[in-house]
Design a protein that fits this description.
This protein is of the alpha/beta class and 694 residues long. It contains 29 helices and 19 strands. The two termini are 35 Å apart. The structure holds (2S,3S)-3-hydroxy-2-methylbutanoyl-COA (T1G). (2S,3S)-3-hydroxy-2-methylbutanoyl-COA binds at residues 22-23, 25, 61-66, 77, 98, 100-102, 105, 124-125, 128, 130, 132-134, 136, 274, 277. Residues 297-473 form the 3-hydroxyacyl-CoA dehydrogenase NAD binding domain.
Length: 694
């Protein structure tokens, strides 16, 4: 096994190199040898200074997340950093790639930090339901000041090298030759004879810090925590750095970390971290499958979805040929795209030049022939099978032989669409979520004939355009929307039997959802569901009546709620309450108070159950894929890990018992417990780690 920590010399400078692929995580197999090496160098009088660097593509990207939840192995990262910080000789961290979490904390244990110009530095622990647990909340404020430290740690967002330099997080940046520059920097420091001050002893940014301003900012950030504990703990720990002596603040940080790391929320968010990466490992698409090159994408349709998809590709640097039926629709679409970029410029998240560069990547056309040079074509036309089949038969005629042909359908049968071409192996679904230039989730719908290299290609494209891909199989609604239907199936009965839209939605927001189902319908537009139901010969008592009154939701100022003067804030409407009461009376339903627990078991339990059925049918390869879909596409609270992880927290036997009770009452299939759920419960196995043969 290769050495994870080695020493080389450049005269009186000792260079310590960590080599622990793929991201130099600070696993135990790194910490122990590093401790020994530092101990040796500290006592070696021939060493005047130390440079700490990493092999491979990045400086240390954090503690080893896989080690959490297992018995701790000393030395832990704090011990190693304390040793490093106690060395009196100048110590210099040479940072390339992404110095994140424990990696940045390790660098903060050095006297100095030099970053390659392309490096990024951050403390993303909050995204794992944690806080920096190796001194980051106590050292970072001493370099950049409490306000900047609070923002970096609560957001978890990394900063580029130039921003790190401006905020004194790093002492220098390096255009090239980072390693040589770091050695020269260390040599100068050693030769200067000036004592190097460890970060722990730098108090200028702390003394006299404006605590009131800090508390005000922390209170603002706390409003966005939405039930997550980690952001609050992060803020508390940074505050301790201001109000407590260093070692007390460090001890308090450890206490907060220990509480979080063993909590359900961090376990849930760590589950999602690995789940997102597992989702890109697709059965029968191994690393030996080489992806095709995508130089240009073609998007058919410049409406809300098509325009958003086109922006997603352009944002990933992929030129887009944008096709619409006529010049007027095309100009409308381009104007919407331009407006979206202008909003980003006004917010400061995009420069004028970058906006111009992106607009230049669009090649608008009304001529199908112009799609002939595209390597990947995505249609976002009207959600109707006949229309889509016509589009694909046209594409079959004009697209180049190696082109990938993708449909953005939300529900329709991708195999049937593929059958309208002579190349079903090149056809698949790319189900984006609106707004497609913002929402992370991309459901990649694998047709029965879709070729492995086509899948490998779109998985790579998903990463390039900043999407979180999950490969799913063909069924009505695939994974996300099929489970959404199950979640909604009994919702109207809750209204008829006694709950108000506001009461149901309040249970959802209390659970951690951004909004409840009825507010969501109003935002999406009730007319969409109405059209789908009519097409499938289905009815929904309340929603149909609302639509018949032209109450389509926010777009008409009225839906399940009222929206005054164009506001998006839902206001309970007595007319709707009356409509519900009348509908209940017509059906002889005696209305009653419905408690939160019943609302959860009649909406979220069927949703979990549908997920288990999806796994049984092989429509999703693993339960954690479903958790990635729901946390990235539908706002399932990350602190609960997704529907599958949350089901384990609830307890499968309890869910099954309630489903059976509901099934007995209603006979509804959504309440019929899936065989998989019952088998796992009987075997005492978790649902969230289930891997099928999908
Ligand atoms: N621990 C363990 N494995 C990790 C890891 C980590 N910190 N980071 C990445 N991996 C694995 C990952 O699962 C994948 O494995 C492979 O490396 C490539 O990752 C005490 C408590 C660095 C930006 O949160 O953000 O330090 O799937 O596919 O797209 O205060 O990895 O190949 O088997 O993501 O190039 C804090 C997490 C930890 C950073 C690279 N650090 N990592 O992205 O590759 S907690 C983080 C990332 C901590 C201390 C606290 C990204 C990346 P496999 P990848 P990438």
């Amino acid at each position: 096994m290769t050495e994870t920590v080695t020493i080389t010399r450049d005269g009186e400078i000792a260079i310590v190199t960590i080599d622990n692929p793929p991201v130099n995580a600070m696993s135990f197999r790194v910490r122990e040898p590093l401790r020994k090496v530092l101990e040796t160098l500290a006592g070696d009088s021939s060493v005047a200074a130390i440079v700490l660097t990493c092999a491979g593509r990045t400086f240390v990207a954090g503690a080893d997340i896989a080690e959490f939840g297992r018995p701790a192995q000393r030395p832990d990262l704090r011990d190693v950093i304390a040793m490093l910080e106690a060395i009196r000789k100048p110590t210099v961290a040479a940072i390339h790639g992404t110095a994140l979490g424990g990696g940045l904390e390790l660098a903060l244990g050095c006297h100095f930090r030099i970053a390659d110009k392309g490096a990024k530095l951050g403390l993303p622990e909050v995204k794992l339901g944690l806080l920096p647990g190796a001194g980051g909340t106590v050292r970072l404020p001493r370099l950049v000041g409490p306000a900047k430290a609070l923002k970096m740690i609560v957001s978890g967002a990394p900063v580029p090298a130039d921003v790190a330099l401006a905020s004194a997080l790093v002492d220098a940046t390096s255009e090239s030759n980072l390693f040589a520059n770091a050695v020269a920097f260390a040599r100068d420091k050693a030769a200067s004879g000036v004592a190097s001050v460890p970060v722990r002893d730098r108090g200028a940014q702390i003394v006299g810090a404006d605590l009131a301003a800090f508390d005000a900012e922390a209170a603002e950030l706390a409003k966005k925590a939405r039930g997550l504990e980690a952001p609050l703990a992060c803020a508390q720990s940074v505050r301790n750095a201001i109000t407590l002596p260093f070692d007390e603040a460090l001890a308090a940080e450890r206490e907060l970390f220990t509480k979080l790391v063993s909590g359900d929320q961090s376990r849930a968010q760590r589950h999602l971290f690995f789940a997102e990466r597992e989702a890109t490992k697709v059965p029968r698409v191994g690393k030996e499958v080489s992806p095709l090159e995508i130089r240009r994408a073609g998007i058919i349709g410049a409406g809300t979805m098509g325009g958003g998809i086109a922006m997603a590709f352009v944002n990933g640097g992929i030129p887009v040929t944008l096709l619409e039926m006529n010049r007027e629709a095309l100009d409308r679409g381009l104007a919407m795209i331009e407006k979206n970029y202008a909003i980003s410029v006004s917010r400061g998240s995009l420069s004028e030049d970058a906006k111009a560069g992106r607009m230049a990547l669009f090649a608008p056309t009304t001529d199908y022939a112009d799609l002939a040079e595209c390597d990947l074509i995505v249609e976002a036309v009207f959600e109707d099978m006949a229309v889509k089949r016509e589009v694909f038969s046209k594409l079959d005629a004009i697209a180049k032989p190696t082109a990938i042909l993708a449909t953005n359908t939300s529900y329709l049968d991708v195999n049937e669409i593929a059958a309208s071409t002579s190349r079903p192996q090149d056809v698949l679904g790319l189900h984006f979520f609106s707004p497609a230039n913002v929402m992370k989730l991309l459901e990649i719908v694998r047709g029965s004939r879709t070729a492995p290299d086509v899948l490998a290609t779109v998985l790579g494209v998903a990463k390039r355009i900043g999407k979180v891909p999950v490969v799913v199989g063909v069924c009505h609604g695939f994974v996300g929307n099929r489970m959404l239907s199950a979640r909604s199936d009994d919702a109207e009965n809750l209204l008829l039997e006694g709950a108000s839209p506001g009461e149901v939605d309040k249970v959802f927001t209390g659970f951690g959802w951004p909004m409840g189902p009825f507010q969501m319908y109003d935002m999406a537009g009730l007319d969409i569901g109405w059209r789908n139901r009519k097409a499938r010969g289905q009815t929904a008592v309340i929603a149909d009546r609302l639509c018949e009154q032209g109450r389509f939701g926010q777009k008409t100022g009225k839906g399940f709620y009222r929206y005054e003067n164009g506001s998006r804030t839902p206001v309970p409407d007595p007319e709707v309450a009356q409509l519900i009461e009348d509908s209940a009376r017509e059906r002889g339903i005696e209305r009653r108070t419905i408690l939160a627990g019943e609302i959860i078991e009649r909406t979220l339990y069927p949703m979990v159950n549908e997920g288990a059925k999806i796994l049984e049918e092989g429509i999703a390869a693993r339960a954690s894929d479903i958790d990635i879909i729901w946390t990235n596409g539908y706002g399932f609270p990350v602190g609960k890990g997704g529907p599958m992880f949350w089901a384990d927290l609830e307890g499968l036997p309890k869910i099954i018992e309630r489903l059976e009770y509901r099934h007995g009452l209603s006979g509804k299939d959504v309440f019929r417990p899936s065989a998989l759920l019952k088998r796992l419960a009987a075997e005492g196995r978790p649902l969230s780690t289930f891997v099928g043969n999908g």
